[in-house]
Amino acid sequence: MPTPPAAGCWPTKLGQPCKTDWLRRATYRLMAAARWRKVRPYDARHACLTYLAANGVPLHIVAAWAVTATARDGAGHYLHPNITDMGQGSDILAELFG
């Protein structure tokens, strides 16, 4: 899974940083198409990250999924997840979503 640029968001087709309102609206359209309950993207993100942490995924991996610089305990400063490590988060989410 590619990681977003340092700014933390994907560029538009013209290479400009995307605005979060566009991303939010696109997320709501996808939720409607899938007939999912409408949930704010922030809340969905928080719930997924909490689920990963509560199911034993190491904090530095959760921090990497959150695209934050560090885990709350500072582990992100010293531990650097690789693609295999990121698979732990993917496996846990696959169990959740089936």
Secondary structure topology:
Elements (H helix, E strand, L loop, with lengths): L19 H14 L7 H14 L4 H7 L9 H4 L4 H15 L1
Helix pairs in contact: 3-5
Give structural notes.
- By secondary structure, this protein is mainly alpha-helical.
- It has a domain at 40-97.
- It has 5 helices and no strands.
- The chain has helices spanning 20-33, 41-54, 59-65, 75-78, 83-97.
- The longest helix has 15 residues, at 83-97.
- It starts with 19 loop residues before the first helix and ends with a helix.
- The relative contact order is 0.11.
- The model is unreliable at 73-78 (pLDDT under 50).
Question: Short summary of the structure?
Answer:
The chain is an all-alpha fold and 98 residues long. Helix content is 55%, strand content 0%. It has a domain at 40-97.
Radius of gyration: 15 Å
- Residue share in helix: 55-70%
Categorize the overall geometry. globular
Distance between the termini: 19 Å
Order of helices and strands: HHHHH
- As a percent range, the share of strand residues is under 5%
Q: pLDDT average, as an integer?
A: 76
How many separate helices?
5
The tally of beta strands, per DSSP, is 0
Q: Which regions contain 5 or more consecutive residues with pLDDT less than 50?
A: 73-78
